[in-house]
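HUMAN: Ready with one sample?

ASSISTANT:
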Amino acid sequence: MTASLRAVRALALLVGFYLMGAVLLALVGIADWLVFSLPWVTRSPYLVVTAVATSAALVVPILLGMFAFLLAGGRSAEEAGRPVTPHEQPELWAEVLEAARAAGTRPPEEVLLTEDLNAAVAERARLLGLLSGRRRLYLGVPLLAGLTVPRLRAVLAHEFGHFSNQDTQLAVVTMRGRAAVLHTVKAFRHAENGASVLVGRLYVRYAQLFLKVSQSTGRRQELAADQAAARRAGRDTTAAALRRMAVLDAAFDHYIDTYALMGDPVSALPPVGEFFGGFARMLAARDPQALAELAAARRTPRPSPYDSHPPITERVALIEALPDDGVAEDPAAPPASSLLRDQGRLSAELEESALSADARTMRRLDWPDLAMARAEADAIGWARPLLTAVRRSLHAAATREPGTTTPHGPAADDRAPEPGTTSPATAAPDPAPRPEAGEPGLEDVLNALDDGLLWMEIADRMPKPAQASRLTGRSARNFIRPALWDALAGLLHLHLIAQGAAHPDTGWSSRPGLALPDAWETGFDAALDAALADTPDTTPLRTLLALTPVPPKQPQPV
């Protein structure tokens, strides 16, 4: 089947998608006529009301689907962005206008900057996608931070290539139709009553059929757009842009989870304009190999039978198979974000629209202060189970009669909790509160380890799953040792923070955390291993503590 015939078939299904609503309305009308033609129905007010209510329950979601399809392409809350005008951002608009001219298509009426890692040209198409409408270009600010200017040209050429009729005009209509169909299906995602769910399933089934039939057309469009990008920006630059997009996708997810949301446990955010703006800092601090490792660590998603995009590897291979065009890739070219003026203000305005109302009320901390607040909160959460276990172990040892043997299992203060309460031995640690007054300090913990309480008392009182409570001997020690290691490390971090010997490390090239004194950086792991060995030895830890300089107190201002 030729490309034109495939497009005609997809167009026929697209028209049928809308007519399905009219057919459903006709069926409801016929059912109503048949029901009300029965004399025994019209004589019963209850049956009349039931029939009308049933019809209305079916008609409402049908009309919802029809109007959602007709209104597809409009700007929704999910697609909202920050519009920029040619006067405000002339350099960016110059690239956009040139890309549209090179593709032989009209430029967008609007350019909107968004907070996600994406680029897309969207239209509010009319008459089932047969007629084009107002055109908008969506550009993610994080994408501009991760691409060079030549690679951005390749991305823009690809997006406008969808509208340059390189395959067939009907193929462009089919692509508009795919967007309209997906928009219609989304209208039913929050359906709750039975009628809406039933009608929504009918639309979903039809949408799946249309997406499968139009998939080949969509893939041809994507590959044709890649060819247009290669002609505009060069073969090597286009291939590099595609490879970079896959890396940036993983890097941006890592940035949001590790850096932008770093202060979530302490209800804090990065400085204004840095929630998305900090992504450029992470990219600048990491070499290409480190960024590629982030992408390699991600699980490859299973291919969808409805995806119109061929795999990136396939697209890159097809581009690299093109003849050499003599246009060399320049990885040292300026970043695409250099096309933006007043980037700090733009990032701050994007935060206002992207963050929730609750998030916007959080306190703002500089990156070092944010890293320190998170490191301290993590250390408290790690240390708390150990402090609780040591306190209870010391209490049990103090109340035990002289000369008795240290018991295994729960001590006197570990009695079963009252009904409706949570056992301290199995409750999850709370990372937020600081250690309570009266809890043992670092010296008390080390003394308890020296006194042989670690494997006889303390380990039994550490939180663990119920099934792990049956372990004994070496198996039990090996199971709980990682939790003890983290807990003791957290307690030591708190000590070093209190002494002013640990400093925040934003860790743009690795992970945020604490920078410890040199002696601790080299001897920390070995000292903890010795303290938590089968025969604990706290001497290496005590040696490090003795070597830790305590900075002099600053005089208080008068």
Notes: Residues 194 and 466 are 42 Å apart (CA to CA). Confidence is low (pLDDT under 50) at residues 404-434, 553-558. The two ends are 88 Å apart (CA to CA). The chain has 20 helices and eight strands.
